[in-house]
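Record 1 of the preview.
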Amino acid sequence: AVETRGLSKRFRKRTAVQPIDLVVPRGSLFGYLGPNGAGKTTTIRMLLGLARPTKGTAQLLGHDVPQGLARIRKRIGCVLEDPAFYPKLTARQNLQVLSRLSSDEGAPDRVGPLLERAGLADRADDKVRTYSHGMRQRLGLAAALLHDPELIILDEPATSLDPAGIRDVRALLESLRQEGKTVFLSSHLLSEVEQLCDHVAVVSKGSLAYQGSLVGLTEGVARVRVKIDKIESAEEVARELGWVVTRTNDDLLVDNVPAREVNRELAVHGLFAHGLSEESRKLEDVFLELTEDANDA
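->
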């Protein structure tokens, strides 16, 4: 659905986006993850033809950007920053105006259902000037879906949302994936990406640090918890082997070594564990590892 080759952006002496190669599978919920200032919004603006790349190319739905955008604009929905609406009109009236401007004959019939899906049904007839920033964000998402797009691009969609708003947006995005839509969302909120996305890219300082499945990002052994009677001897052996170990209460924690290897090496030294368990890596740990490595580079 989205593909870039060497896409980069430079502002005078500052490089906002290093050359990146992105591949977003059709039908995926793709998280573009990175800290604030990582170049996420600049990348999205280049994808939508709102910023000219310094180098590289981009394609959306198989069409070149920006040359082919006019032919596929109706197949794309997006929400960037703070969506603009008529403040003296209600949410329903705003969407009705937008639906009449759309060439999609089905758009007017989607107004009510989209307000419901965005969690705004009970405030649909209130003027938008009374809305919080988070509510305008949700209204912006509803507006982006009026023409039933195939590809939805969202820049930090959970920003400023309260817990109820996050729940509603999460349910809406999940339903879009089930409908076969492709959703590309940028975020710095790890919990949202972990709960929603099946594919991710991690960016830091404008550089791509990882791209692939969410499972692939967090798979692998982070730590082995060892239960053993002779814990002092086991700790000494582990340190002699150069392992990173931590002792907590009656357990020994060994970082980044498979349980099978831990068990074998301890047995070689006449030490036999009566409990071994592998603890998988958390997204937060992997994210910090990747972004800190990029910052140090």
